[in-house]
Amino acid sequence: QVQLEESGGGLVQAGGSLRLSCVVSGRPFPNYAMGWFRQAPGKEREFVAGISWSGSSTGYADSVKGRFTISRDNAKNTAYLQMNSLKPEDTAVYYCASGRVFSTAAGQYGYWGQGTQVTVSS
């Protein structure tokens, strides 16, 4: 059974930083791309960042470019999202997802975590 478990969310002041982690079990982690998505209240889920299976390719939403960094450690079956210079508009539930190829489309990811809340106060 494939499981994705996020951690690292919390409450932070604007300008602060958080690092989210996503541990994957039940499938060969290095073979799959990883993505981070977020969903704010009343809004649709949106792509935040993605990384290819090798880590050689990454992509970001325009709203987070230069502030967020996605990475992965295949030896630890873990993907990360380093979030710096956080803004109140980054407040959302953040989800990690696993898929066969790197994509900005949520539909390309077959497995999802339960999400972790990130709240940025002004």
**Which word captures the global form?**
globular
Instruction: Calculate the mean pLDDT score and round it.
Output: 95
What profile does the largest beta sheet have? Answer: 7 strands, mixed
Order of helices and strands: EEEEEEEEEEE
Q: Classify the beta-strand content into a percent band.
A: over 45%
What is the C-alpha radius of gyration, as a whole number of Å? 13 Å
Compute the number of helices.
0
Termini separation (Å)? 40 Å
Topology, number of strands: 11
Tell me the helix content: under 10%
Q: Structural class, please?
A: mainly beta
Q: Spans with pLDDT under 50 lasting ≥5 residues?
A: none
What does this structure look like?
The chain has strands spanning 3-7, 10-13, 18-25, 33-39, 46-51, 58-60, 68-73, 78-83, 92-99, 109-112, 116-121. It is built from no helices and eleven strands. The chain is globular and about 40 Å long. Strands 2, 4, 5, 6, 9, 10 and 11 form a seven-stranded mixed β-sheet that branches. A four-stranded antiparallel β-sheet has the order 1-3-8-7, with no helix packed on it. 0% of the residues lie in helices and 52% in strands. The mean pLDDT is 95. The protein is mostly beta strands.
